[in-house]
Design brief:
42% of the residues are buried. The N and C termini lie far apart (93 Å). This protein has a five-stranded parallel β-sheet, with helices on both faces. The mean pLDDT is 90. The longest helix is centred in the C-terminal third of the chain and has 21 residues, at 474-494. It has 29 helices and five strands. It is mostly helical. The radius of gyration is 27 Å and the shape is globular. It has three domains: 3-179, Tetratricopeptide repeat domain (Serine Threonine Protein Phosphatase 5, Tetratricopeptide repeat); 184-299, no CATH class; 307-578, 3-Layer(aba) Sandwich (Rossmann fold), CATH 3.40.50.
Length: 580
């Protein structure tokens, strides 16, 4: 073995023994004499990668590929560099090229991780499954796959994979609890979380995911104890404590100080702003709305909203509906009951009432109708492509509609295969009302409506995800609400009253028993006392209203804008008939 090979072997040994600095020194000297040696360049890139010097590692792997474009190992690690440096689109492109040359498990794992970062859980789960099939899977691989399956609402499949694991780590328990909650097996979820909750409280540890799950299954006191007793002093825990009114007054910071703190992430600044506004609500009306304005201003930075696009979407929805036909042999099932309306209009309350019935189960804010209309694959979870089906030229013939209806029922039955009725509460399915009726002419659709001023203000108060970017500016909110009103007027003209039911939030909270009886009668459900006592239900609640629906019906959320008329004048002017 010559000196060159001896030095290469020594560098390899350093890399294998996690001594990248020493390997780098050896390899840099070798590249001066052998600048075109792809093996040396590859090893140098690997040492930079171990040192987390991604730009230099990227340069080395690109030099290798300039000399040998088919070097799959270099492509694989170049993709890894892009992934670790946060360039996920470039990482995806590079790793897909590598897969054209080799089916190595490591490349599939990296590609799956990239798809997870891009929130494409459909593609991520495909590549995790493929990686698992060609190697003895490490538990972490199965856990990552199950995370993807849970994100796609494929909870039963997630449970099947989780049951393959013998080691029950904390991550395993959390993922399994999410899957149990997904199929509404609250008993199993509570049993699974019991010991880990005791451990976390005893050790004063913190888990945001555990806290969220405890709230969803109704263990509100345990969730509060977990939060109040933790030793975690991170800013995000401070936000949670502020949200729950258990942060010591001396630790509540002025928002102006938080916004200018370079150590706090933008996401945390936004969350703190909404929590602080909620804190001020009962103390100072002016501070409440002013803080909301600041939090929403920060949240909408970099966001855009096009009134023209939203109006065009409404026109396209109506045209597509008018171009479709209602077939005599449409699916006869009346199993689905759909709850639609703007967010914060009483949809979660309505779901809790109906979901408490002995013959019904609630599927939560399900994306299944979105999947059904857009290709019948549980592919996207970001909601951005929910209207893609409008651009497809395929005919909505009887065969396709039957196929879509069967797909929808098959996916919903994965949550509960016994219930007579399945409640699908996705507020923005108001865009789909006519198409839902095409697929299920016997299904009941409940439209929850509330004073536009109260609805818009309540949306403005929420730190929703970016799908609801319209909610960060009153001007955008007004436009979005009017578009919703126009579309609902279109549906109401075309769907019979025995299909589309109008449920007014104010009527419901003022005369609950009368309106609940009417609602149950419309749905073909016998009256049950449990529907009046829905707040005592042990069923799952996952939305922003999680704490409210554990309480009884209350009317205190009506006209909360009194006293801030000047601050929301454009909202009042947009809907003058609702504030007289």
């Amino acid at each position: 073995m010559d000196k060159r090979q001896q030095k290469i072997q020594k560098a390899i040994s350093c890399i294998q023994n996690k001594k990248p600095s020493k390997a780098k020194e050896i390899l840099l000297k070798l590249t001066k004499n052998f600048p075109q040696d792809t093996h040396i360049l590859y090893l140098l890139g690997t040492s930079f990668l171990q040192l987390e010097r991604y730009a230099e590692a990227t340069d080395c792997f690109n030099r290798v590929l300039t000399i040998d474009a088919t070097n799959s190992d270099a492509l694989g690690l170049l993709g890894a560099c892009y992934k670790l440096s946060g360039n996920f689109q470039k990482a995806k492109e590079t790793l897909l090229k590598a897969l054209e040359l080799t089916q190595a498990s490591s490349i599939k794992q990296n590609l799956a991780a990239v798809y997870m970062e891009l929130k494409d859980y459909y593609s991520a789960s495909l590549y995790y499954k493929s990686a698992i099939s060609i190697t003895t899977p490490e538990p972490i691989l199965i856990l990552k796959l199950c995370h993807c399956l849970n994100e796609r609402f494929l909870f039963n499949e997630s449970l099947e994979y989780l049951n393959l694991l013998k080691e029950h780590s904390e991550q395993f328990i959390i993922l399994k609890a999410i899957a149990y909650i997904g199929i509404h097996d609250v008993v199993s979820a509570k049993r699974l979380l019991k010991d880990i909750t005791k451990t976390y409280i005893k050790q004063r540890k913190w888990s945001a995911e555990l806290y969220k799950l405890l709230n969803q299954i109704g263990n509100l006191e345990e969730a509060k104890v977990l939060l109040s007793q933790t030793n975690d002093t991170s800013f995000d825990v401070k936000v949670k404590k502020l949200e729950n009114n258990i942060l010591e007054p001396s630790r509540i910071l002025q928002y102006s100080k938080v916004i200018t703190d370079s150590k706090v992430t933008k996401k945390s600044k936004i969350a703190y702003g909404f929590a602080l506004a909620n804190h001020y609500k009962k103390i100072s009306t002016s501070s409440w709305i002013q803080t909301l304005h600041l939090a929403n201003q920060l949240k909408r930075e970099g966001q855009s909203y096009s009134k023209e696009t939203e109006k065009a979407n409404n026109i396209a929805i109506q045209k597509k509906y008018l171009d479709t036909s209602q077939y005599k042999n449409a699916h006869k099932s009346n199993t689905p009951i759909f709850i639609i309306g703007m967010p914060r209009s009483g949809t979660t309350l309505t779901e809790a009432i109906l979901g408490s019935h002995s013959t019904a189960t609630a599927s939560g804010e399900s994306l299944v109708m979105h999947y059904t209309l857009n290709g019948m694959t549980a592919k996207s979870t970001n909601g951005k492509d929910r209207l893609d089906f409008l651009e497809k030229n395929e005919d909505w013939d009887e065969k396709l509609q039957t196929k879509m209806a069967n797909y929808y029922l098959m996916m919903q039955r994965k949550i509960d295969n016994q219930a007579k009725f399945i409640i699908d509460k996705m507020p923005h399915n108001f865009q789909y009302v006519g198409f839902i009726n095409r697929l299920f002419p016997n299904a009941k659709i409940i439209h929850c409506n509330r004073s536009p001023i109260d609805t818009c203000l309540s949306i403005y108060e929420q730190n929703f995800n970016n799908f609801h970017k319209y909610g960060t500016k009153l001007e955008w909110l007004i436009d979005a609400y009017k578009n919703y009103q126009n579309l609902m007027a279109f549906w109401q003209e075309r769907l019979p009253g025995n299909v589309l039911y109008q449920l007014n939030y104010e009527d419901l909270v003022n005369k609950p028993e009368e309106n609940i009886r009417n609602l149950l009668n419309f749905c073909g459900l016998d009256f049950e006392q449990e529907c009046l006592n829905f707040n005592e239900s042990q069923k799952v609640v996952k939305t922003a209203s999680v704490r409210q629906v554990r309480e009884n019906i209350y009317a205190s959320s009506n006209k909360r804008w009194l006293g801030i008329e000047d601050e929301i004048s454009e909202l009042l002017e947009a809907f003058p008939e609702y504030h007289k």
